[in-house]
């Protein structure tokens, strides 16, 4: 999903959101390094306003995505849950989730967690 992560970063930038980790130095992680607290410490060091945390679960041809937005203190500002419609291919399922994420994130631009320029 790394290509799609870049697609989401580019979309947010096109919407006018300042993306602190562009080009992305953060990729797929496992274990403690993926904890929200660990990412919040990075956000605080970068002097960013918020953390957009994406969790993706693949269960065959169904993909579940959870986007959570936290302020620098770790308070949950909002979240979006997305499950793809049934798709025959992995690529189709992934594209469906990314397209839904783009639409939902666009509605959040300029509001808490996704300030625009």
Description:
With 117 residues, the chain is of the alpha+beta class. It has a single domain, classed as Rossmann fold, CATH 3.40.50. It has a three-stranded antiparallel beta sheet with strand order 1-2-3. Helix 1 packs parallel to helix 3. The longest helix has 19 residues. The radius of gyration is 14 Å and the shape is globular.
The CATH architecture comes to 3-Layer(aba) Sandwich
Strand adjacency order, main sheet: 1-2-3
Number of strands: 3
Uncertain ranges: none
Overall pLDDT score: 79
Q: Please tell me how large the radius of gyration is.
A: 14 Å
Strand portion = 15-25%
Distance between the termini: 27 Å
Can you identify the CATH class? Alpha Beta
Q: What structural class results from the helix and strand content? A: alpha+beta
Please give the largest β-sheet: 3 strands, antiparallel
Tell me the domain tally.
Answer: 1
Shape: globular
Q: What is the CATH topology?
A: Rossmann fold
What is the ordering of alpha helices and beta strands? HHEEEH
Number of helices: 3
Helix content: 25-40%
Topology:
Layout: H1 2-14, H2 36-45, E1 50-59, E2 62-71, E3 76-83, H3 90-108
Antiparallel strand pairs: 1-2, 2-3
Helix pairs in contact: 1-3
Characteristics of this structure?
117 residues; alpha+beta; 3 helices; three-stranded antiparallel beta sheet; 24% strand; Rossmann fold
Short description:
With 117 residues, the chain is an alpha+beta fold. The chain has helices spanning 2-14, 36-45, 90-108; strands at residues 50-59, 62-71, 76-83. It has one domain: 3-Layer(aba) Sandwich (Rossmann fold).
């Amino acid at each position: 999903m790394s290509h799609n992560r870049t697609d989401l970063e580019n979309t947010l930038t096109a919407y006018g959101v300042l993306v602190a980790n562009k080009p992305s130095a953060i990729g797929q992680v496992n274990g403690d390094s993926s904890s929200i607290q660990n990412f919040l410490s990075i956000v605080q060091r970068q002097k960013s306003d918020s953390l957009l945390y994406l969790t993706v679960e693949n269960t065959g041809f169904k993909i579940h995505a959870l986007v959570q937005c936290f302020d620098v203190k770790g308070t949950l500002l909002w979240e979006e849950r997305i499950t793809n419609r049934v798709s025959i291919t992995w690529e189709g399922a992934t594209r469906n989730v990314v397209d839904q994420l783009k639409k939902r994130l666009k509605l959040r631009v300029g509001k808490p967690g996704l300030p625009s320029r």
